[in-house]
Amino acid sequence: PDIDVRGKRADEALQMVRDFIDEAIVINIGTVRILHGKGDGILRQLIRQYLGTINVIRSYHDESVQFGGSGITVVEFE
User: Fold this and answer.
1) DSSP state of 67
2) What is the rounded CA–CA span in Å between residue 34 and residue 16?
3) What is the pLDDT of residues 41-74, one digit of tens each?
4) CB-based contacts of 50: which residues, under 8 Å, 6+ apart?
5) How far is CA 57 from the centre of its chain?
6) What pLDDT shows up at residue 48?
7) Three-state SS for 41?
8) Which of 12, 74, 3, 10 is nearest to 41 (CA)?
9) DSSP state, 52?
C-alpha cells in the first residue's frame, strides 16, 4: 500500500494522493505510505495539508529513518 509521487508536479501529485487515499478508505486499508521525497519539502507540505482535512485519518508522520525518514509519510486510518 504505497504510492510514489516523487518528481511529479504539485497538482499532479496531489490528485494522485487524493485518488490513492479515497481508494484506501473504500477498501479499508489500515496504513499506507506516500513516497514524496525530501527535496525542498513542497510536496510533503502540500500532501500533509490535504491529509489534515480527512476526518478518517487517525495520524500521519514521517517514516522511520532507516526506511526513508522525512521522504515518506505514513498515514494511519481509524
Assistant:
1) G
2) 10
3) 899 999 999 999 999 999 999 999 999 999 999 9
4) 14, 17, 18
5) 11
6) 97
7) coil
8) 10
9) T
**Cβ pair 24, 1 in contact under 8 A:** yes
The whole-number pLDDT of residue 39 equals 86
Cell numbers representing residue 52 in the block? 489534515
Residue count of the chain, please give it: 78
Beta carbons of 50 and 15 less than 8 angstroms apart? no
Question: Which pTM value belongs to this model?
Answer: 0.93
Q: Can you tell me the distance from the alpha carbon of 38 to that of 77, in angstroms, rounded to the nearest whole number?
A: 23
pLDDT at residue 38, rounded to an integer: 93
What single-letter DSSP state applies at residue 58?
E
Quick one: cell of 59?
495520524
Q: Residue 16: which of 66, 42, 50 has the closest Cα?
A: 50
